[in-house]
Design a protein that fits this description.
By secondary structure, the protein is an alpha/beta fold. Helix content is about 35%, strand content about 20%. The longest helix has 22 residues. The two termini are about 25 Å apart. Bound molecules: pyridoxal-5'-phosphate.
């Protein structure tokens, strides 16, 4: 390892990303990579995007910070685009973790109850509250007692719904579990979950931090289903890389977050809002339809190219949020590094899963090439075992 003055919270690959353009990333040696990561689901519109650069640069020259003590027309503009005409209101913060933290606090305050139901293999963040509702025991180790009134149930399991009672303040769920293994919620189950929450007077929080902002072909993944969440959280792709988070809640919850009930110094700052406003302008129906078509193309090629490879156990996910589940004898880390050699950037997720989150602006030809390179690398890896 190189000499470092950083906490070793990340195992870093031994190269640095210096620049990006479209879906191409360049490292410090000049080597270029096809990006299938978007950061980690952040730069959904790719890199060095003219409209975003212009919007942020214009705002930079005007003002880059104001406190939340003054009116903010950019926050209003972004909020209006996020609520899509529904009777909802928005709180801006700086990350997915913060958005979930706000959601948990709001649910508790609005209902006067404290219990939260979450799911195994979920990921909602690393702060004390959001980690408490994260269904991964390994990343909780060593931190002592977290929030105690959280229950975890199996995902995509109808029996889990029986655990939802009037005692709960909220259920928090990802429509597609990302870090936990790229598992798509099944339509019937998600809709039954929504119904169960309504029947029991329990708030439904949908975490769209990874699955939102067009990733599955809708602005939010829950919009594929008959679901009506009380609270939705967003971050990652919302400002294409400028830190931002948002909690969107039904208007009837607004009084629980009255002045002084919650807050943030940086949340909703003009730079992030200028970027988010532009991102949401770009994510129109035509753009989302194109994502759906590209996703169909990519799934077609992946299913065809990987079908006969013994090391591929299955594919999972939704839209351009895809997991390739590898047999245990081929560690996903080796595959990621072999793909680096071939000039392709990919990610991992729980369960020896190769995770693909390409920028949504990627062209069909790049997706076909990506599928072929993944096939080649998996074939070579099998030979070298
Ligand atoms: C579904 C989900 N929720 C929350 C988070 C946490 O977001 P952040 O890292 O912006 O705090 C993530 C990050 O990966 C996520 O995927």
């Amino acid at each position: 390892m190189n000499m470092t003055t950083l906490f070793p919270t990340y195992n870093r690959f031994p190269f640095e990303i210096i620049s990006g353009s479209g879906v191409t990333i360049t490292d410090q040696t000049g080597k270029q990579y096809l990006d299938l990561t978007s950061g980690i689901g952040v730069c959904n519109l790719g890199y060095n995007v003219k409209q975003l650069n212009e919007a942020v640069t214009a705002q930079l020259g005007q003002i880059w910070h104001t406190s939340n003590l003054y009116e903010n027309h950019l926050q209003e503009a972004v909020a209006e685009k996020l609520v899509q005409g529904e009777d909802k209101v928005v709180f801006f913060c700086n990350s997915g973790t913060e958005a979930n933290e706000a959601a948990l606090k709001l649910a508790r305050k609005a209902t006067g109850k404290t219990k939260i139901l979450s799911f195994n293999h979920s990921f909602h963040g690393r702060s004390t509250g959001s980690l408490s509702v994260t269904g991964n025991e390994q990343i909780k180790e060593g931190f002592g007692e977290l929030l105690s009134d959280v229950t975890f149930m199996p995902y995509n399991d109808f029996q889990s719904l029986q655990a939802i009672t009037e005692d709960y303040a909220a259920v928090i769920v990802e429509v597609v579990q990302g870090e936990g293994g790229m598992t798509a919620g099944e339509a019937d189950w998600l809709e039954a979950l929504d119904t169960e929450c309504k029947d029991k007077g329990v708030l439904l929080i949908i975490d769209e931090v990874q699955s939102g902002m067009g990733r599955t072909g809708k602005l939010f993944a829950y919009q594929h289903y008959a679901m009506d969440p009380d609270i939705v959280t967003s971050a990652k792709g919302l400002a294409n890389g400028i830190p931002v988070g948002a909690m969107i809640g039904k208007k009837e919850l607004a009084s629980a977050f009255s002045a002084g009930a919650h807050g943030t110094t940086f949340g909703g700052n003009p730079l992030a809002m200028a970027a988010a406003n532009q991102v949401l302008t770009i994510l129109d129906d035509e753009f989302l339809e194109a994502v759906t078509q590209k996703a169909a193309l990519f799934w077609y090629y992946l299913e065809k190219d990987l079908a006969n490879l013994a090391v591929v156990e299955s594919l999972s996910g939704k839209g351009l949020m895809i997991g390739i589940h590898l047999a245990p004898e081929l560690p996903v880390g080796n595959v990621i590094q072999a793909l680096h050699q071939e000039g392709v950037l990919t990610l991992s997720a729980h369960g020896n899963t190769l995770r693909l989150l390409p920028p949504l602006v990627i062209k069909g030809a790049d997706l076909i090439e990506a599928s072929q390179k993944i096939k080649q690398v998996l074939q070579m890896s099998m030979v070298h075992q």
